[in-house]
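sry for the spam today, last one i promise. struct tokens for design, 583 residues
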């Protein structure tokens, strides 16, 4: 793309906003045309625009861990096809060991030509409900290699100069169970990139390639300057941290460690994961694209939120992840859980490290993902379904000056994953929702408390439902961490009641079969607290007690606020005594 010599800064802003708007319109197209609840309700995808040479220019990262991995997928496709790219082509990809994250996150990208020149790429990447293999909605806690997790798609031309390649299409769809749904989702993604192409053509027609190209350069340079300034404000030094995951689904008797050192040197920041465990047998391994995305989302969640996330923004950032480790496994390691529990552990490690350098910008621990994936046939419709149970979300961690958010999607999404409508959920699945309510005392106490978790319970109304539990946060070491004196969130739990029997606890990262009448319950943690709980305003504690999100006992034992259970008034003298004794 040719460049204009000089671009008006106001025009740069206009073109930047236009590019952002195009990525949002690509996303809105997906929301309005997809049949998958994972797209339509949860928005489990990202949309991007790249330059011809693979620089990320604009993105709407509905799910940041997906968005952060897109540059690797785009580069893999460009490196594979080189100059063999034509107007009307569309490419597909999901290979975790060549730019992908996990198999369900399928990339669809379209080259955009203008006057015979390749100028842009319009991309969508999102979680598809079925990729075959032995898993449930893409998650296989018993997998020992990536082939057991589903169909692995290297860079493939799925549309050749405007004509669908039926051979490649059938090859993919013949390897999934929910063919009709997957076909509709892939068509949705392809159509959305066509909308992106149309809008980019309109932008080029209005301003020309020189002006748009120069504006893109300015946008990238501006993001780089902003990020360098943010890094320069962090004291130079090395900041270590570590987090763990409960197990890998294969070796259930050990946890796995993410070891991180954040190094700050002037305007340069390095995430060094060299102290992490070697890759696991099971599905918690994180390919490099996912590891970088997880580190980025944690950092960009702690600095200026107005910085555009593009290739310029991550120029000053380096990620070191040794080959063969948990955070950069070698093929054919299974990787399906990388985008959820492993991403959460990476993000938590980043926030712990940053809390040692810039405590006012760090997050306390967020609740980790704990709900299952289920798949089967809905007898009400006679059609297969896949469900990721997005209703069972926990709470986010507190930050300085702010309580955490209640019932928010986990840190891998930074809250971007929407909660489905309960009634639509019951229509799409053979489940009856019995309980979904905030869980008192589930969050960590602090000067700013964590967001609340929930109790989520449903009854199964069909037989032979495949269920794969996956996630973390089921032991004290993986409960949401409090920061700077804040308390941790509670330990999460799963239980299953069959018939008239008593509920029994079940494990994460395991397979179960659900049948008609079974009742499944999720207890999702609240987030960690930030700061000494005894410094929390006593009136805020009283408010929380009156709203029944903090118990009278917790008000006294955690916050040092003595509240009369009958009158719900603060006993001032007793509270003063408790708080004085604590300090």
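last one done:
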């Amino acid at each position: 793309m040719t460049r204009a010599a000089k671009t008006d800064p106001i025009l740069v802003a206009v073109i930047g906003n236009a590019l952002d708007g195009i990525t949002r319109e690509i996303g809105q197209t997906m929301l309005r045309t997809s049949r998958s609840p994972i797209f339509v309700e949860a928005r489990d995808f990202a949309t991007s625009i790249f330059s011809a040479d693979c620089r990320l220019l604009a993105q709407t990262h509905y799910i940041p861990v997906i968005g952060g991995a897109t540059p690797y997928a785009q580069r893999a496709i460009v490196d594979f096809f080189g100059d063999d790219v034509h107007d009307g082509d569309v490419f597909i990809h999901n290979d975790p060991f060549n730019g992908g994250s996990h198999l369900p996150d399928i990339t669809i990208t379209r080259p955009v030509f203008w006057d015979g020149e390749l100028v842009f790429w319009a991309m969508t990447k999102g979680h598809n409900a079925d990729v075959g293999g032995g898993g449930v909605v893409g998650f296989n806690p018993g997998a020992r290699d990536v082939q057991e997790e589903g169909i692995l798609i290297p860079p493939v031309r799925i549309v050749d100069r405007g004509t669908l390649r039926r051979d490649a299409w059938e090859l993919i769809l013949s390897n999934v169970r929910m063919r009709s749904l997957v076909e509709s989702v892939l068509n949705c993604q392809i159509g959305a990139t066509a909308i992106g192409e149309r809008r980019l053509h309109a932008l080029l027609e209005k301003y020309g390639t020189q002006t748009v190209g120069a504006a893109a350069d300015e946008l990238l340079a501006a993001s780089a300057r902003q990020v360098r300034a943010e890094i320069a404000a962090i004291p130079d030094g090395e900041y270590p941290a570590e987090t763990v995951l409960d197990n890998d689904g294969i070796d259930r008797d050990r946890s796995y460690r993410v070891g991180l050192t954040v190094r700050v040197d002037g305007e340069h920041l390095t995430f060094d994961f060299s102290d992490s465990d070697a890759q696991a047998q099971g599905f918690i391994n994180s390919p490099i694209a996912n590891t970088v995305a997880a580190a980025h989302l944690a950092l960009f969640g702690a600095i200026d939120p107005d910085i555009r996330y593009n290739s310029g923004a991550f120029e000053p950032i380096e990620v070191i992840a040794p080959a063969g480790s948990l955070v950069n496994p070698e093929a054919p390691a299974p990787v399906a859980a990388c985008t959820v529990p492993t991403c959460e552990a990476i993000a938590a490690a980043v926030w712990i490290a940053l809390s040692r350098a810039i405590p006012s910008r760090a997050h306390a621990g967020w609740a980790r993902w704990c709900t299952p994936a289920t798949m089967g046939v809905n007898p009400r419709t006679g059609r297969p379904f896949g469900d990721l149970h997005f209703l069972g979300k926990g709470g986010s961690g507190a930050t300085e000056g702010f309580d955490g958010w209640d019932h928010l999607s986990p840190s891998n999404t930074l809250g971007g994953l929407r909660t489905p409508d309960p009634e639509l959920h019951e229509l799409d699945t053979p489940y009856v929702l019995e309980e979904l309510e905030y869980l008192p005392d589930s969050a960590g106490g602090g000067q700013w408390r964590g967001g609340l978790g929930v109790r989520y319970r449903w009854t199964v109304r069909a037989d032979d439902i495949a269920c794969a539990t996956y996630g973390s946060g089921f032991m004290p070491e993986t409960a949401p961490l409090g920061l700077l004196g804040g308390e941790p969130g509670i330990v999460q739990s799963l239980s299953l009641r069959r018939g008239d029997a008593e509920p029994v606890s079940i494990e994460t990262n395991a397979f179960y079969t659900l049948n008609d009448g079974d009742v499944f319950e999720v207890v999702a943690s609240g987030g960690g607290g930030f700061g000494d709980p005894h410094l929390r305003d006593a009136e805020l504690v009283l408010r929380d007690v009156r709203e029944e999100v903090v118990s009278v006992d917790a008000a006294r034992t955690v916050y040092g606020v003595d509240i009369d259970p009958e009158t719900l008034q603060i006993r001032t003298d007793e509270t003063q005594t408790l708080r004085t004794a604590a300090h």
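Residues 179-232 form the longest helix (54 residues). ok im logging off now
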